[in-house]
Amino acid sequence: MKNSVLHKATTRGLANHGWLNSRHTFSFAQYYNHDRMNFGVLRVLNDDIVAAGMGFGSHPHNNMEIISIPLEGDLKHADSMGNQTIIKKGDVQILSAGTGIVHSEMNANNDREVKFLQIWVIPNKQNITPSYDQITIDQSAMINAFLLVVSPVGTGKGVGIHQDAWFHIGKLDAGTDITYNFKIPSNGLYVFVLKGNVEADGQNLDERDGLGIWNTEKISFKALEDSELLLMEIPMTINN
């Protein structure tokens, strides 16, 4: 029997630290909601706005897959593996923390905010060797289609994640009908609307709404206006 959970944008947790304004879909830091700890192995989905010249200074992580997707502006990354990069809208970054990593994510601009999604996925293996990767999305390949941007390590498509997970991004013109077919039927799909208004499996979703669906093999979408979506197919059972 198909199951679903709806997270309207206005019901998310809020943290405003002055330099950082963040909306939390799931429990994070000072925001705690017993009913919103995770969706399967999807542990964190933060919608972050960082003030000009500010950011997350050096701090540690371990045994977590951390994906960053800039939506506006430029994000400067540095880590204890020696990586120093800039990621911007159209890029997708992954940091596999494994046995332990120290990193920073700073607004690379002194004259404007940077907006990005910070996503944490629980890995299927503990204490792996830390790694880093980033890609630039082919914008034309996501028009009225779901472009694969994250996939399991070794598949060679998008950035590699230590989990049986697949992320897609799509830009849909108003009136477009499209279907997503699950890679693994036992997985769940978390839909996050970046822009616009869509109907997902019969459920109306506005900008920044989230919808988790599981116990099904495909989901139908209809764009009610020009829209942009992030789809995250992930295991529903935590197994590491």
Description:
It is a single chain. With 240 residues, the protein is an all-beta fold. The chain contains no helices and 22 strands. The chain has a 7-stranded mixed beta sheet with strand order 1-20-17-22-15-13-14, with no helix packed on it. It has a 7-stranded antiparallel beta sheet with strand order 2-3-4-11-6-9-12, with no helix packed on it. A 4-stranded antiparallel beta sheet has the order 5-10-7-8, with no helix packed on it. A hairpin with a 2-residue loop joins strand 18 (197-200) and strand 19. It is globular and about 45 Å long. The mean pLDDT is 96.
Mean residue pLDDT = 96
Helix content range of the residues, please?
under 10%
Regarding quaternary structure, what we see is single chain
Sheet with the most strands, sense and barrel status: 7 strands, mixed
What order do the strands of the largest sheet run in, or round the barrel if closed? 1-20-17-22-15-13-14
SS element count, helices? 0
From the helix content, strand content and strand pairing, which structural class follows?
Answer: mainly beta
The end-to-end span amounts to 26 Å
**How does the overall form come out from the CA principal axes?**
globular
Number of beta-strand segments: 22
> Gyration radius, to the nearest Å?
17 Å
H/E series: EEEEEEEEEEEEEEEEEEEEEE
**Low-pLDDT residue spans:** none
In terms of DSSP E residues, the strand content is: over 45%
List keywords for this structure.
mainly beta
Write the layout of secondary structure elements.
Layout: E1 3-7, E2 13-16, E3 20-24, E4 42-50, E5 55-61, E6 65-72, E7 74-79, E8 84-88, E9 91-96, E10 101-107, E11 114-121, E12 131-136, E13 147-152, E14 159-161, E15 166-172, E16 177-181, E17 188-195, E18 197-200, E19 203-206, E20 210-214, E21 218-223, E22 227-234
Parallel strand pairs: 13-14
Antiparallel strand pairs: 1-20, 2-3, 3-4, 4-11, 5-10, 6-9, 6-11, 7-8, 7-10, 9-12, 13-15, 15-22, 16-21, 17-20, 17-22, 18-19, 18-21
